[in-house]
TrEMBL record:
Family: Belongs to the TMA16 family.
Protein name per Swiss-Prot or TrEMBL: Translation machinery-associated protein 16
Pfam families in the cross-refs: Tma16 (PF11176)
One Gene Ontology CC term in the entry: nucleus
Presence of the UniProt keyword Coiled coil in the record: yes
Presence of the UniProt keyword Coiled coil in the record: yes
Keyword list, A-Z: Coiled coil
Coiled-coil spans in chain: 165-207
InterPro entries: Tma16, Tma16_sf
Length: 230
């Protein structure tokens, strides 16, 4: 059965003309309007779920930085990130000591902390607190999503991560050594394969020669027997 429902206003003909409130066209227009409102609500919720965590993080760092400071140092930024990652530790501790130790809230907070730690290892996104101009913009910001793009975002990696302490030359040198080891192992494997193949081939030749000698000896023996019989 064909689907004759109209999903948009463009599909309704003569929608600007006078329509009877009880007509089928009026019902179609009402259904389309409700559908559009429902889709807008779903879209708004999805956008809010995606953007709201970013807004909350920016606001947290905005109020965490001392208002008396024009900007933060690198060491202070590291401290603030550690404070942010541990922001729910008190609540987790309270949940662990209560009868709600196995609650979904506790698991959510612990997984959130683990996620933040992993992000910190690769690069934690925060507002640029070391830029005085960006600090002024951040302090004037009221959490509006539309003006959030004016705030400069940077990525800070965990200084305790051993990979971050290596210089570029060290990383390139390790990569070169890994490539050399791989080539050497590949060459050794190829040589071993060829050597094994050669040994097997030699063994096959020996076995084949032995079979030939055995056949020749058997033929000679048969000839000798025939001559003796004669």
């Amino acid at each position: 059965m064909p689907n004759n429902k109209r999903h948009t206003f463009k599909q309704i003909k003569n929608k600007n003309s006078v329509i009877h409130p009880s007509s089928r066209k009026a019902a179609q227009l009402q259904r389309i309007s409700l559908r559009r409102d429902r889709l807008e609500l779903v879209k708004s919720r999805r956008t809010s779920e995606r953007v709201q965590p970013i807004v909350d993080r920016l606001l947290w760092f905005r109020y965490a930085l001392d208002d008396a400071l024009p900007c933060a140092t690198k060491a202070e930024v590291y401290d603030l990130i550690e404070m942010y990652i541990a922001r729910n530790d008190d609540e987790i501790s309270n949940l662990n000591s209560s009868h709600k130790a196995n609650s979904s809230r506790r698991f959510y907070l612990e997984s959130l902390k683990l996620k933040d730690k992993r992000e910190y290892m690769e690069g934690f996104e925060i507002p640029d607190l070391m830029n005085p101009k960006n600090i002024k913009i951040l302090r004037k910001w009221d959490g509006d999503v539309n003006s959030m793009s004016r705030i400069k975002i940077i990525r800070i990696e965990d200084p305790n991560n051993i990979n971050n302490l290596k210089t570029t030359s060290q990383i390139l040198d390790e990569k070169r050594k890994r490539n050399e080891n791989f080539k050497q192992n590949s060459q050794n494997s190829l040589e071993n394969i060829m050597e094994n193949f050669k040994v097997e081939l030699d063994q096959m030749n020996i076995n084949e020669q032995s079979n030939i000698d055995e056949i020749v000896n058997m033929n000679l023996l048969e000839d000798i027997k025939e001559k003796l019989i004669i």
